[in-house]
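Response to reviewer comment R2.3. The reviewers asked that we include at least one raw input/output pair. We reproduce the pair for PDZ binding kinase here without editing.
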Amino acid sequence: MASPTDEGAFKTPKNVRVRSFLGNGGTPVTIPASPFMKKLGCGTGVNVYLMDRAGKVNASPWAVKKINSKCATKQLAVYQKRLNKEAKLLQGINHPNIVGFRAFTTARDGSKCLAMEYGGEKSLNDLIEKRREDGLKAFPAANIEKVALHVARGLQYLHNEKKLLHGDMKSCNVVIKGDFDSIKICDVGVSLRLDENMKVLDPKAEYIGTEPWKPKEALEEEGGEITDKADIFAFGLTLWEMMTLAMPHLEMLEDEDDDNEDNEDDEDSFDEDAYYERLGTRPALDEGALGSSYRKMVELFYLCTEENPKKRPSAIQIVQALESNSLLAKTPSESVCPYISQHCSLGDLLNSEIGSLLLYMLSCCFE
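Raw output as returned:
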């Protein structure tokens, strides 16, 4: 149940009558007040609650995203605009690897509620934190490969069919059901339209993202060219999260916390310049700590996190390679992937079923 500090906890509990935009004739939907719903999580400016629909015939629960009423007034309009946008986009999306739309409602007080499918999923980030707290190491390679394939399928659908850049790929925006039985992308509220060349349609559109997962082109002061490959960079870092149980570049913040245990007054111990310099780069990966079963995911991580976006594979190429069980490496060069150069020969690469993806990657090397 929600704690007393949750949104609406100090209001008189009551059901709020809302109007549903489901294309079903405007049938009213009753959304309980926040204190009557279990809080599943929160994001920037929003809280997510579990709406138990028990009592309705064959009714599965919903995840209800609501604007956090405690947000600063000047931010409320921004978050409501994002929620409106997400609802509109989700209504037109239908894919097994993207969380499904259920309803978009407006309460009498004017607050917005976006209802989405919910089957007991947990965020990948929560699973990463739990695994780290339990003293475990990287997820099994098979689990990482499954996440890679299913998320890549979702991105392929967004990029190629819907011409949408997700814009905020990270472990927090991937939800997992059971023992990796279902894997879905969520939170499309900051997505951007793509043109036929996979470039962001509106040159003035702002890439929101989340700082540690942003590619170099999204961090440039004058604004680099944003394409579908921005999602691919963040996708690669999401795989890195599963192999390291950490967040990109945030080890610097953790080091600062450790130092401050001995010297709490040292407010200048964190090297902010060094942190920002690392953003948009490929974080270090201890390949030696991973077995040979991780080889494919290691090379995929290296390819997706190339600084030059043109050298990153597209979502459709990733899907094709993973579905055909092909190698992804474009070259055994140590500058691309030290792991590959140490564990496989050029002959291994050339004899693999890499097909068109290898040819594409080789062509990128000579651009």
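The longest strand covers residues 38-43. Residues 1-26, 329-336, 345-356, 362-367 have pLDDT under 50 and may be disordered. Further pairs are available on request from the corresponding author.
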